[in-house]
Write a structure and sequence with these properties.
The radius of gyration is 20 Å and the shape is globular. The model is unreliable at 1-20 and 297-306 (pLDDT under 50). The protein has ten helices and eleven strands. It is an alpha+beta fold and 306 residues long.
């Protein structure tokens, strides 16, 4: 049985010498090295931002993809149907499916896993449906957290990274299935408020400092904000805010030479010391050590990054 998946061919006429396709303007991806004969294997985990107005074409591939939309909108058009992607939507692709994906006026932020194997295909079909397509889930925050765990595990590497990522992929599929089943229920007012507040944090996290600021900006009581995040998400409002800030800091440490002091200022910390404490608590290592590991500078003097 031949199963084909997303291989994106760029439609924009942009510089093709970039390190990723031209429609992708920001990317954090990690590759694993599963054996070719594996029956359930995660090969790549990625977080990507696609540029506004960009487009890509799906082509034949022998891998399977599960993708979650975090922010932005896109339209997918195939010979059979047209579907719209928006936050909280899953794209599952595991069969022959050629289509055109067009991003809306704002950037499209996604997280995805890519893998291969008959056992993986079977699990995707069991939890996401037999055919490729899109659908909404009502537990997107929980699903995003598992994607983040997969990114962390793939980034860390080590002899058990493949097994860990495969295991979390199984948890991911079960969690998506649960959200898809629950998604047939009518969306409550609390869920709509949660989605609105979460979207506000996503857009303004660099300049936010507390749950109180979020509550005031969203015109709701702070205690109510905390309750709806507890009910519909897996983080408190402040923990979710901190996670966005620290994930952005890690991205800057990996991909730029920006000083730690400047990074702390960019993501809204009052001073580098407070930032370093928060980063070390979240990632279990200091920013300077994290940067050294990602830059292959283990054993070298990392003091220059301070």
């Amino acid at each position: 049985m031949q199963c084909l998946d997303l291989e994106l061919s760029v439609c924009k006429t942009e510089d093709m010498n970039n390190c990723w396709p031209a429609h992708i303007i920001r990317q954090n991806e990690h590759y694993l090295a599963p054996p070719p004969q594996a029956q359930f294997a995660i090969r790549r985990v990625a977080r990507e931002r696609w540029g506004p107005g960009s487009s890509a074409i799906t082509r034949k591939h022998n891998r399977h993809i599960i993708l979650l939309v975090l922010r932005g909108q896109a339209t997918i058009t195939s010979q059979q149907w047209t579907s719209h992607l928006q936050p909280g939507f899953i794209l599952s692709s595991h069969a022959f499916w050629e289509s055109d994906i067009r991003v809306g006026e704002k950037p499209l932020d996604i997280v995805l896993i890519e893998g291969f194997g008959e056992a993986l295909l079977s699990q995707i079909q069991q939890h996401c449906g037999f055919w490729s397509g899109t659908f909404s889930i009502d537990n997107a925050a929980a699903v995003e957290n598992i994607f983040n765990t997969l990114l962390t595990a793939a980034s860390a590497g080590g002899p058990f990274a493949q097994e860990i990522c495969n295991s979390y992929a199984r948890v991911l599929l079960c969690t998506i299935h649960h959200g898809m089943i629950a998604g047939v229920k009518q969306v409550s007012g609390a869920m709509q408020t949660y989605a609105r507040c979460r979207s506000y944090i996503d857009e303004h996290f660099l300049h936010l400092h507390s749950a109180q600021e979020i509550a005031e900006a969203c015109n709701i009581d702070r205690a109510y904000l905390t309750r709806i995040f507890k009910k519909h998400g897996s983080d408190s409002p402040y923990a979710y805010l901190q996670r966005l800030k620290l994930n952005r800091a890690a991205e800057l440490l990996r991909q730029t030479d920006t000083t730690i002091s400047a990074i702390a200022d960019e993501i809204g910390f009052n001073d580098p010391f407070t930032f370093s404490k928060a980063f070390s608590r979240y990632y279990t290592i200091s920013p300077s050590i994290y940067r050294g590991l990602k830059m292959g500078e283990v054993g070298k003097d990392a003091s220059k990054h301070k």
